[in-house]
Design goal:
Elements: H1 2-21, H2 51-69, H3 72-75, H4 82-86, E1 90-95, H5 101-109, E2 127-132, E3 137-140, H6 141-145, H7 159-163, E4 166-171, E5 180-183, H8 198-208, E6 211-216, H9 225-233, E7 241-245, H10 252-269, E8 278-280, H11 294-309, H12 311-348, H13 356-368, H14 370-382, H15 392-399, H16 412-431, H17 475-481, E9 489-490, H18 492-500, H19 506-516, E10 524-525, H20 526-540, H21 556-567
Parallel strand pairs: 1-5, 1-6, 2-4, 6-7, 7-8
Antiparallel strand pairs: 2-5, 3-4, 9-10
Helix pairs in contact: 2-12, 2-16, 8-9, 12-13, 12-16, 13-14, 19-20
Amino acid sequence: SLLQEMVGRAWILLAGVVFLSLGTGAFGSWLPDWGWFRKAGGWAEREYEGMIEEIKVFYKDQLLPLEEKYRFHSFHSPALNDADFDAKPLVMFVGQYSTGKTTAIRYLLGQDFPGLDIGKSPTTRKFMVVMSGDENTQVSGSVLMNDPTSQFRTLAKYGTAFANMFQMSTTTSPVLRQVSFVDTPGILSGEKTRDYDNIAVLEWFAERADRIVLFFDADKLDISDEFKKAIEAFSGMEDKLRFVLNKSDMDHVELFRVYGSLMWNLGRVLKSPEVVKVYIASLRDSPLEHKVFEPLIETEIQELLADIQSVPKSSANRKLGDMIKRTKKAKAHALVLSKLKEALKSAGGASGWWFEASRKAMMLDIIRNLQKDIYDPLINEYFMSQEDFPDIRRMQKSLLPEDFAKFEDLDKEMLAVLDDWMDHGIATVAKHENKKGPEGSPDFVSGGAFDGVMDSKSSFLTYPNIIMEEDEKEALALFQTFKLKEDAKLDGNRVKNEMLKSSLPKHVLQRIWKLSDVDGDSMLTLEEYKVVRFLIRRMLAGNDLPSSLPSLFFPQHEARRLAKEKNNPKKEL
């Protein structure tokens, strides 16, 4: 018997060794291909390919089959494809008409874009996606929505009326190399309506956006019914919301009153007890007329720009967070449908339903008591949150035409896979937080209004404003004032002091500095400072800044140097 016991233990040990080796052996194909499960001794056997790729693999292999089985796409959100994962981060601008949304996008880009229309009356009638392109073009919504590779293909469910009010605008701004913008129609007030479900479309974009910037201004502090519905549709996305009191260039007494009124109105709409951050800004290139709060407005603008500038760096984490939310909602949806089927079957008894009218009446009764009879028991049994479950009113409306008997039974193995990813897969993906995507991919927005915001070495804002010199109008006169020769250079402190006298916003002066400091040494030659004076006068006259310094205005010695380098390129070692 001792020999038999030893042989038995040997067989058990051998079986265990074989089982552990199956994950990498030829016989391991029957195991689920979970990248985080199959490595003996730890998670993530598959080589890590980036956070986005890991999320994509989980969705396609594990979550999507459950969504399809329980019709998650017809009840809630459409299926995702590669474009949804690989698309550039989106920043969405929402607000009532004439609050400066389109002007803000133009200000951020530092240039115009196709389809730009700015005015006091409602001008933006369409949803416009502003993206990077090799040339300035416009693409209609119907084309975007019928492209199977487009991230906007699922918008087709909102019909032709919406397609006519949707378009994409492409331009060559360097800002759009790292991020895309979504300009939305002004929120309506009163009894006016649209031919499509505007709130549903806003929610669609919000689910895919990395930032949702809500605009207010002093003349439109009241939050209309449609605006309130839009904010409520963003429930659960509070981490994406940014609030901007735009057009804040006003008397300081009036600004205090406006700010207080806005905070009071927001408190009535937002469910969160915390006080939200509201950026006080004036997102335009023209100088501020009221100087009392100029330092505050400039600081607030810089904070907002820095927040938007960091969007690409945090985009992968945002997509991971969205996938976690989607996984919880898909699990809750599966539980609800299977519970509904079970409740209907239980109410019919062992003999089943004899009369169809009685069966339909019971389904209506279950729908009326959806929270008490379905949601609450599931929340208690599975230790889930109310926020994980579909909105009760929307779900009740969706269930009215459904036959509960046709729903699928609960697949516990599918739920176990999701739970396993929530418990272990997330930790494995988050552990590689610093490997979010392809090497060399930009992790912050640059160009346009963002130049210098995160550049501590050459940022115009970093120079201490301590020198109080007289304002010299001509560049040569300024050099003579400091007893500098024409081949000398002005240091940053002196240049900043002179530029500030123009009263232009600091972010505009930062761009002028970037354009003028051709050699990037944070000092200006006489020729470079002449360019500064020219660009300042150009801005004060109401003109735009160029996206790059035209060769016509290059300082002469720099133009000669660049020409020399072009004619005599350095040889590779």
